[in-house]
Amino acid sequence: MTSFQRKTGLGKGLSALLDDSDSVNPPKNGVNPVSETRQETGNNSAIGNIKISDIDTNPFQPRTEFDQVALIELSESIKIQGLIQPITVRKQTGNRYQLISGERRLRASKLAGLTEIPAYVRSANDQQMLEMALIENIQRENLNAIEVALSFQRMLEECNLKQEQLGERVGKNRTTVTNYLRLLKLPPVIQISIRDQKISMGHARALINVEEVDKQLFIHQEIIDKGLSVRKVEELVRSINSVEVKSKFQRQPKGVSFEYQKLQRDLASKFATKVKLKVGENGKGAIEIPFMSEDDLSRILELLDW
């Protein structure tokens, strides 16, 4: 039987939640040495080889997509080295088990042709399963920002955690947690672009600072169409916010109707700079579009298809 060495909990993250605790010796000659089950009556933990066909997937799994190329690479490694890190499951009725964490390892093991897999068997209720699955994914997988944000939201709502507690669980400060959660307030089309990595987390954080949805969507489309850098987007946002702040405190010139005021605001949004609309009594007038630099002028001319 393989020997096991007890170690203390880390105080946060998956290790503390699992109380692990157990560690396995690395495989020798590519063969995983775990072949028997060891029971710990103290925390109701066991480790042993389980038939893959007896394992059901985790209904609380937050990850919806897995990189097929990465799975194939992992499966090739498992064929040669064996599975070094066991998955974690909980016992169900009969000979059935339910996956808690390690779905990527389980999928790769199936691809590698394994019929059995080493696993920790734990006692866990539904809430603990959800928290374990979320924390493992956040810590070990390259989740996109929206998946992380959704995982954080689920932990807050379904695990009854406060943001400070959540930060301790995942090893992030409260500000970082808040920034991720704010992404979920963006329009769905922008969230999809973040998920699909068409725009970065930096772009998204800049967009969050724009209050009006139509302006967020306009800047988002500019990022997609022109490949704007995060710095350029931040400049656009500052310019738009500056215009909005000034418009709140500056009285509109006498004789400018509500329709013209709205048109002036819409133009300021489109060009991301202060636009002045002058209208005379005879209906004639002018539009002034200031620019801050030659690059800014080029940007405005592009918007005008010049």
TrEMBL record:
<feature type="domain" description="ParB-like N-terminal">
    <location>
        <begin position="48"/>
        <end position="138"/>
    </location>
</feature>
<dbReference type="Pfam" id="PF17762">
    <property type="entry name" value="HTH_ParB"/>
</dbReference>
<dbReference type="InterPro" id="IPR003115">
    <property type="entry name" value="ParB_N"/>
</dbReference>
<dbReference type="GO" id="GO:0005694">
    <property type="term" value="C:chromosome"/>
</dbReference>
<dbReference type="InterPro" id="IPR050336">
    <property type="entry name" value="Chromosome_partition/occlusion"/>
</dbReference>
<dbReference type="InterPro" id="IPR041468">
    <property type="entry name" value="HTH_ParB/Spo0J"/>
</dbReference>
<dbReference type="InterPro" id="IPR004437">
    <property type="entry name" value="ParB/RepB/Spo0J"/>
</dbReference>
<dbReference type="GO" id="GO:0007059">
    <property type="term" value="P:chromosome segregation"/>
</dbReference>
<dbReference type="GO" id="GO:0003677">
    <property type="term" value="F:DNA binding"/>
</dbReference>
<feature type="compositionally biased region" description="Polar residues">
    <location>
        <begin position="32"/>
        <end position="44"/>
    </location>
</feature>
<keyword id="KW-0159">Chromosome partition</keyword>
<dbReference type="GO" id="GO:0045881">
    <property type="term" value="P:positive regulation of sporulation resulting in formation of a cellular spore"/>
</dbReference>
<keyword id="KW-0238">DNA-binding</keyword>
<feature type="region of interest" description="Disordered">
    <location>
        <begin position="1"/>
        <end position="44"/>
    </location>
</feature>
<dbReference type="InterPro" id="IPR057240">
    <property type="entry name" value="ParB_dimer_C"/>
</dbReference>
<protein>
    <submittedName>
        <fullName>Chromosome partitioning protein, ParB family</fullName>
    </submittedName>
</protein>
<dbReference type="Pfam" id="PF02195">
    <property type="entry name" value="ParB_N"/>
</dbReference>
<comment type="similarity">
    <text>Belongs to the ParB family.</text>
</comment>
<dbReference type="Pfam" id="PF23552">
    <property type="entry name" value="ParB_C"/>
</dbReference>
<dbReference type="InterPro" id="IPR036086">
    <property type="entry name" value="ParB/Sulfiredoxin_sf"/>
</dbReference>
